[in-house]
Amino acid sequence: MRTVYVGCVGLVAAALVGVACAQEKKSATVTITVPESGYKETIVTVDGVELKGTGATREFTAPNLEAGKEYTFKVEARIEPNNYTKITRPREITLKAGDAAKLDLTTEDKKLDKIVVRWVPTPVDIVDEMAKLAKIGKNDVVFDPGCGDAVMLIRPVKELGAKKGIGIDIDPKMVAAAKDKAKAEGVAEKIVITEGDILNEKDMAGAAEATVVLVYIGDDLGARMSPVLQKLLKPGARVVSHRFKLGDWKPDRTVTVKGADGDDYVLHLWTVKEKEKK
Ligand SMILES: C[S@@+](CC[C@H](N)C(=O)[O-])C[C@H]1O[C@@H](n2cnc3c(N)ncnc32)[C@H](O)[C@@H]1O
């Protein structure tokens, strides 16, 4: 909590200001609206302390605020829309004694919010189905933003003779695992893995070289990455996403394939057209 003195209202005698203010202590309340994920309850903290409650709203009371002062609190929502995505949404709210404020934590702020998607590998047979949908051949350069252990690069290079695989991952442990795996599979010389963030256009440079993108990254991150991807990709490039769409970019085809494990897998295909370049 940060406090800023803003003066007492309605007092005439300057000499009495300090005394009068000190006596006027009141609470302030905030009704905080949060996203309901259906997977896990959203956790809300104020200055690091978790608020009690469940559902779409939480109530915060700041007790004993001195009249004439402003108090700034750090509020944070930790949202888990599914078992692989964690969104941290930090905000600040400034209160005065007697306030009954509202704070909406349901809307995204692209600059402030942090999204972390953990590694969940795509099964090998589904990678092969994605490669088939993208019609990967020996002239293709395949890019995977959020490559994990690089299965989506190793399979096309090893099994289909793709020219090159380029992967980035934000997690240095996954970068090391991907490099080790490419070496173990004997395709290290054709696969370039670097540590990078798919939300950083510079780190996404591999997209400009790619003729095919294979991706599995979740709705929230995918939507944020989509404009960068569309900007960098060449016309004619094919994008196949395992399960998730890429924001409001409408896929040209969506298919459901049966996995070796008996589960259904949804795959989306886009082919970059001249007019779609941003
Ligand atoms: C669901 S896994 C998919 C891995 C691989 N593409 C596959 O399908 O097997 C998502 C991967 O993206 C990485 N990742 C998450 N956020 C990222 C970001 N902002 N930039 C780059 N990689 C990220 C994670 O570390 C994880 O390895």
From TrEMBL:
It comes from the Bacteria. Keywords: Methyltransferase, S-adenosyl-L-methionine, Signal, Transferase. The keyword Signal applies. InterPro entries: CHP03000_planctomycetes, FAM173A/B, SAM-dependent_MTases_sf. The keyword Transferase applies. Residues 1-22 form the signal peptide. NCBIfam families: plancto_dom_1. This is TIGR03000 domain-containing protein.
